[in-house]
Amino acid sequence: MDDLLPGMLRVTRDGGETLTRQLTDQLRHLITEGRLAPGQRLPSSRQLAQSLGLSRNTATFAIEQLAAEGYVILSAGRRPLVAEGLSLDRRKLSSRTSGSGRITVSAWASSLHRANWPPVHDGRPRPFQPGLADEREFPHDDWSRCLRRAARNAPLRRDRPINHPPLQEALRSHLVAHRGIKADAHQILLVPTAQAGLTLVAHALLEPGDHAWIESPGYGGANVAFHAAGAIVSAMPLDAQGMAIAARKETPRLIFVTPSHQYPTGRLMPIGRRLELLRFAEVAGACIIEDDYDGEFHYEARPVAALQGLAPSPRVFYLGTFSKATYADIRIGYIVMPEALVEIFELAQRHMGMLASITMQDALAHFISAGAYLGHIRRMTRLYKGRRDRMLQALATEAGDRLAVEAPAGGMQLLARCRPQTNDQQLSARLLEAGIVSRPLSRMLYHKTGERGLFLGFAAWNDKEIDQAARILGRIVR
Amino acid sequence: MDDLLPGMLRVTRDGGETLTRQLTDQLRHLITEGRLAPGQRLPSSRQLAQSLGLSRNTATFAIEQLAAEGYVILSAGRRPLVAEGLSLDRRKLSSRTSGSGRITVSAWASSLHRANWPPVHDGRPRPFQPGLADEREFPHDDWSRCLRRAARNAPLRRDRPINHPPLQEALRSHLVAHRGIKADAHQILLVPTAQAGLTLVAHALLEPGDHAWIESPGYGGANVAFHAAGAIVSAMPLDAQGMAIAARKETPRLIFVTPSHQYPTGRLMPIGRRLELLRFAEVAGACIIEDDYDGEFHYEARPVAALQGLAPSPRVFYLGTFSKATYADIRIGYIVMPEALVEIFELAQRHMGMLASITMQDALAHFISAGAYLGHIRRMTRLYKGRRDRMLQALATEAGDRLAVEAPAGGMQLLARCRPQTNDQQLSARLLEAGIVSRPLSRMLYHKTGERGLFLGFAAWNDKEIDQAARILGRIVR
């Protein structure tokens, strides 16, 4: 064996792993593979070093590491002994292992692919990928100063709540003034993403078999979150005012709506429908998730007050994100909660681990308090409104006869409707080949209908990029 | 009515809300309350301004905002008209609403309180709160430079994967070199917290009714995550080597262990037990979650290689966090995944919204690549080892006759055992009154046993703080 061992080892000086690590790894491997048997003695480190052309130190370090890990036993004046019971003996194992050794995942995990959500595009974002803010316009210097301040202030912070009070307070003031929210600061939970917020609300409110309503066409993230909680999801078609409140056999426990600008149609839910929805929820005892994903950007009248502030009793979960009003990398979402549920939801946040970095929360608090947040939103509102108008014009010019586009009341994207029964998925795939990102409307429909179209983002691209991409789009659509 | 309306309104100049907002809010409220009836005409804005002693502009802005929101209808030359169908009519609603109007939560949410996890302490962290790094020792300036660089680099990033490749690569190199991990960079998922990682693995692997094993005493976060996924959780008692692998009637699908330093006993699982566990998992077809929550800090021999790197087939999920090796505010966790499951887990991450901010990920990538991470770990290892020794000595001096303390092999905390049947929860409560934080061992036990003790953190406090707090602890324990 003393002669055989060196032949089983191969250390190279190719600049990768250190020699000690190579030797340790290989000896460990030989032991767990059973090729060095329990009770067997290894060569001394001097012998080992010599036969492999290594320094004595290298061999000694390797043997000592293996001893520290329990692979070999050292005793004075004797050669290292391979410990007992370390072989994994692969052959014996595999004959006893049931099945192929492949890991089976849960029914939930194996169903994820079927949901076809979210659409993921490789590479750098391209026009007209929806949901993107223009990060080139973001005041990165101001933001980096806020981050630096948050990092340097860390040792001064006294308390350790998971939802950072300075951000809760700054965000509350903003939401009260600009979105018509009615809440105390402590009702705001900060979560890693808006989707995490949806998951949290769904799991904390829904029992398997409960009924939940989503808009159709609507946001796929709500659909998957409700399904994950075991709910029976009903797709409620839209009319001109948004989700049509129709009597159904089963009373919903949770209703998901996007009243600021409906996702994906961009329509604003007028006050009449808002109140109808709130009345319905009161009578039904249902809760509402109001997703105000890009509610900061309004282009027509001043924005309508949020459902949350209109509701006669606290049953609305107002959901928002910083990823649209700042840019995608920041990725922090928030929920304005009914007060009575704050405590149980903070516990649920901890149980699911849906906490947002305090460094980020503190930086955002500075960013809002210093006025940089509102200033950015105001600047982007003007910019995005111009881009919306440019996009409407470009689409009318390039494909006015093929696409029917309704001007969205706000937000970062619009829906261009194709003729009914167009294969919008095929169309979207053809556009992608030409470098244009879009989402087919048919992928956002949760009820049977012939509606077809393309969902297009306009906020992240300048006029030249919009014109250029619209030209390509027009060529392919025609 | 024209005369009555001003009496129903009250605007004040107390410096709170603007006058326009007060007026808008109050009129909106009167309409939804039904006190201003549909079809009724309001005074003109001139009349309104006059009777309330406001400027004409204030009244005009308020009326126009209400018109934009759909509450009133304006037509040239006529007074504003209250729109139809806007009253929520509270009395009628409440008589029809079933129940008290309280929101009922899911069975999962209502069970959270019973889990008694996690323990939360108000106010600034105090000795000996477990699980805390000493943030005073953290190189905040280096870190803030990394954050700044990450913020400024944002516009240059080309790709938008949810798990940031530069951090995956930097972390991979670190884990390979220092923890014995075997993985490609893309097998590392970055999640908001380690607990989010646990939730993700539990939901993606466990079906309701599946069996899962945890250590007892052990980490409560694993217990609640497995329960949340519907699993039947078995508490496996420890022996001197860690979780005792005993035959049970039911084969586990998932096993949670803390081999680097068992939570809470601080014991290192020796190589023999590691291999026994891996062999068992192979035969049973079980997966393992190896939680290396503070595996960076080893005080005796060089650390034993992670189970993940030893496993003969890819069935180990290696879980880590930056919150211990850096400090709590940073709050990013990671999972090293079996390669075959990466794609489905990234989809699961998106579905649950468990994404970590790219800004933070990029800053951590810089921090690791620049060597600051390893440097900090090395410095903290020396510092924490000294504090561990100081703590052992202080506890021996102050309460040596009452507490049996085993030196932990590494990490940031230790277990001081009390005499069996001591009421450690009462003891911990008395300590808290005296300003000393501890966790009773009995709260970490998931099987019946008389073991009692206090779980104490030592890493976040300097020698003076340790001595002082140990003196108080000793007085109360005796």
Summarize the entry for a quick read.
Helix content of chain A is 42%, strand content 12%. With 478 residues, chain A is α/β, with parallel strands linked by helices. Chain A has an eight-stranded mixed β-sheet, with helices on both faces.
Describe the structure in your own words.
- 2 copies of one chain form a homodimer.
- The N and C termini of chain A lie far apart (77 Å).
- In chain A, strand 7 (254-257), helix 11 (271-284) and strand 8 form a beta-alpha-beta unit.
- The first copy, chain A, folds into 3 domains: 5-94, Arc Repressor Mutant, subunit A, CATH 1.10.10.10; 137-374, Type I PLP-dependent aspartate aminotransferase-like (Major domain) (Aspartate Aminotransferase, domain 2); 381-477, Aspartate Aminotransferase, domain 1.
- In chain A, strands 3-10-9-8-7-4-5-6 form an 8-stranded mixed β-sheet, sandwiched between helices. Chain A has a 4-stranded antiparallel β-sheet with strand order 11-12-14-13.
- Helices cover 42% and strands 12% of the residues of chain A.
- The radius of gyration of chain A is 30 Å and the shape is elongated.
- The first copy, chain A, is built from 18 helices and 14 strands.
Question: Can you tag this structure with a few keywords?
Answer:
3 domains; elongated; Aspartate Aminotransferase, domain 1; homodimer; Arc Repressor Mutant, subunit A; 478 residues; 18 helices; Aspartate Aminotransferase, domain 2; eight-stranded mixed β-sheet; alpha/beta
Chain-wise SSE layout:
Two copies of one chain form a homodimer.
Chain A: H1 4-8, H2 19-32, H3 45-52, H4 56-69, E1 72-73, E2 81-82, H5 90-96, H6 107-111, H7 140-153, H8 165-179, E3 188-191, H9 194-205, E4 211-216, H10 220-228, E5 232-239, E6 242-243, E7 254-257, H11 271-284, E8 287-291, H12 307-310, E9 316-321, H13 322-325, E10 333-336, H14 342-352, H15 358-369, H16 372-399, E11 404-405, E12 413-418, H17 424-433, E13 439-440, E14 452-457, H18 463-477
Parallel strand pairs in A: 4-5, 4-7, 7-8, 8-9
Antiparallel strand pairs in A: 1-2, 3-10, 5-6, 9-10, 11-12, 12-14, 13-14
